[in-house]
Write a structure and sequence with these properties.
Length: 311
């Protein structure tokens, strides 16, 4: 399926529910909200599933699109969601259309628009909206800029391509306020976040002559810093900042349930393959999984898995 076929399919629908993934990031939220706005522009009733894990950084952009209580959809679309195991808490239903860019997507929907070569789902939604509406308005441009910029680390990550930069330029031409968004998302932090970063850097460990860096974030660290979920946005990028690191891992102890693991690489090993060993997935250079054990035990399990992948 291509963007025009996807737009044609959506044009036939109404009472559409757009679903973001578990622990939603800027890509899933920005992409879904932009598509929701575009569907409303062509006269369709569309809402976002009220994902209970949306953090403060994004809620102000997403709130106008959340479904009212009692909304009954006729058509369900997932955005940036590779597998049914990533559905948000409280969501149930059969998915009619999946829009995604993860190579680990399981093609669980009745219809699938999957493009693993793109850096973000936002790039796909940009093309769908152009096919659906003929172009974007300022609101949609801002929302997709959030999607594209967050999934590329403000265009710093290795998944950034020339197509990514062309998409960003096009979004700015459509009216995206990159100055405001970059400041709000990438250059504004709470005192608690900065305190937490200090603890993360202090406790970071390296292996394989500095080629592997691992950061552990415990509940005790969170409490001492006074940090909350909003302060943990993109902490997975921190251990990769050490000079010489080719594989970086963040292990986060969660209040309930398993540890959350985020893996980033420069290409030395495949992050998605590593995380797939533990039921996770993602991209070759950025992936994640969960490990049902204590953080230190999770570290030893991951180091052993790295040894197996990286001979």
């Amino acid at each position: 399926m291509n963007n025009h076929e996807c737009a044609a399919l959506l044009r036939k629908q109404d009472n559409i529910l757009l679903v973001t993934h578990w622990r939603p990031d800027g890509d899933t939220l920005g992409s879904a909200a932009a598509l929701c706005h575009a569907l409303r522009r062509i006269g369709r009733t569309a809402h976002l599933f009220p994902n209970p894990q949306i953090i403060e950084n994004y809620i102000r952009f997403i709130k106008p699109y959340l479904a009212p209580e009692g909304f009954v959809p006729s058509y369900i679309v997932t955005v940036d969601t590779a597998d049914t195991g990533l559905f948000p808490d409280g969501f149930q239903g059969d998915v009619d259309l999946c829009i995604d860019h993860h190579p680990t997507n399981t093609y669980y929907a009745k219809n699938n628009f999957i493009r693993p070569e793109t850096s973000s789902c936002g790039e796909l939604v940009l093309e769908i909206i152009k096919a659906l509406c003929g172009g974007l308005d300022e609101e949609e441009a801002n929302l997709i800029y959030i999607a594209v910029s967050t999934d590329t680390g403000c265009f710093c990550y290795g998944n950034t391509t020339s197509d990514t930069h062309r998409a960003a330029a096009e979004l700015i031409d459509y009216g995206a306020n990159n100055k405001l968004l970059n400041k709000a998302i990438f250059r504004t932090f709470s005192a608690a976040r900065l305190a937490l970063e200090g603890m993360i850097y202090t406790g970071m460990t390296t292996y394989r002559d500095g080629k592997v860096s691992i950061a552990i974030v415990t509940l005790d660290m969170m409490e001492k810093a006074g940090a909350n979920e909003n302060d943990c946005e993109d902490i997975a990028s921190l251990p990769g900042k050490i000079k010489g690191a080719e594989v970086s891992i963040t292990i986060r102890e969660m209040p309930s349930g398993p540890c959350k693991v985020s893996v980033r690489t420069t290409g030395a090993i495949n992050a998605a393959d590593l995380c797939a060993k533990f039921g996770g997935g993602g991209h070759a250079m950025a992936a994640g999984c969960n490990l049902d054990c204590a953080p230190e035990e999770a570290k030893e399990i991951l180091l052993k898995a790295i040894d197996e992948e990286w001979k």
